[in-house]
Amino acid sequence: MTWIRQQLAACGDRIACNEGGKTWSYAEFIELIDHALTQLPSKGVAVIEVQAATTIEGLAMLLAIGETRHIALPLPAELPEAEQDKRRLVANSSQLYNQLEGSGLVLFSSGTSGEPKGMLHNLDALLDRYKNLSARKDRSLLLLLIDHIGGLDSAFRCLFSGSTLVVPEARSPEAAGLAIASHQVNVLPASPTFLNLMLLSGTVQEYDLSTVEIIAYGAEAMPQKVLKRLAKAFPNAQLQQKFGTSETGAIRIKSIDNESLFFRIKDSDTKWKIVEEELWLKTPSRVVGYLNADDVGLEADGWYRTGDLVEIDDHDNLRIIGRASAVINVGGQKVHPSEVEAIIGEIEGIETVNIYAMEAPVTGSAVACEIVVSGDEGSRVWKRIIRNHCRGKLAPWKIPSSVKIVDSMSVNIRMKKSSSLEQSRNSPQSPEHP
């Protein structure tokens, strides 16, 4: 890992991070890494919990572990103690570490569709993906935590290019707006849901966000309506779609243009193919395996079945349709939530929409939706408006049979939108609380 030391040392007194009213230079960041090394066992291989008062200290510990043969287990304070205990138990009871060459990293899925899956990464292979980044002097906002592949990608991409990481006081639209304005942030990586919340909350109007030059969105499908709103709200910013999975790390892609959801994979280390609408990837940074689940999706020849459904145009450009696991089966008929969301999103007065499955006695499942609206009409009125709008545009079984008005769209720990069904499953009273 000498290349990491060399790249960080070359930045010297340049600011590496702004967080909690304090700044750290790159020289001070190296000191944090050196201090973290003194905290690690000198013999054997151990699972090291990464818990730090600040994000930059957590990243320093991760890089220190990268210089050893230990295994990092990030446990952010935001996680409930019960979930931290679950992750400790899983991480300390696995035999998968025998297959690891070099240092390791354990990450967990969000658990929105079941019990969170623990994944073992080769940390060396993951870090090597950032070895040849061009030098930049950006100021990049960090919203996701360092126990998430998207948060790690944003942080590593920033630090290994000599840029400045800006960590807001809270993961809210208001705190993000304040951090952008205060530190003149020019790179804004965020999920479509969070970006939409910034638009709906008035954050864009309240704060001076004119320094933003790049909006990098990913982690979930971007609604076309939100993309157009962003292009209007940030006329001088490039809107760049990002793509990656917890199992492979970030994949370099290029958006076709600011208002297109199509992209091309531009990653020399990654092979891709489409099998029955599903995107498969083959990359050197694929996970070693799962700690607490079968290796479903991990092919023996190195391919990973992402679970992302895509469409491809005549020029090999791709567009994410949605997750295979999110497809709603209505009496044998498949419904892609993103297709329904796009049609309902056309209706004036509907600010945002979330489509999910609800139980139905005859068909097994039915389509339900939550909407955030700008008018005063009730659910019955909006249900009629939605049904009238969808006729002729969607098959009858795709039209929502349940419409619920909510004040705002809930966001889970991964900064993605979550439905009422997911919230109920993950409530503190539920035994499946993540």
Q: How do the helices and strands line up, and which of them pair or pack?
A:
Elements: H1 2-9, E1 15-19, E2 22-25, H2 26-38, E3 47-50, H3 55-66, E4 71-74, H4 81-91, E5 104-108, E6 118-122, H5 123-128, E7 139-141, H6 149-159, E8 164-167, H7 173-183, E9 187-190, H8 192-200, H9 203-206, E10 214-217, H10 224-233, E11 238-241, E12 243-245, E13 249-251, E14 253-255, E15 263-265, E16 271-275, E17 278-282, E18 289-290, E19 304-312, E20 318-323, E21 328-330, E22 333-335, H11 337-344, E23 350-360, E24 364-373, H12 379-390, E25 402-405, E26 410-411, E27 417-418, H13 420-425
Plain-language structure description:
- This protein is an alpha/beta fold.
- Among the domains are: 1-134, ANL, N-terminal domain (Rossmann fold); 327-425, GMP Synthetase, Chain A, domain 3.
- Helices cover 28% and strands 28% of the residues.
- The chain is built from 13 helices and 27 strands.
- Strand 1 (15-19) and strand 2 form a beta hairpin.
- Helix 2 (26-38) packs across helix 3 and helix 8 (192-200) packs across helix 10 (224-233).
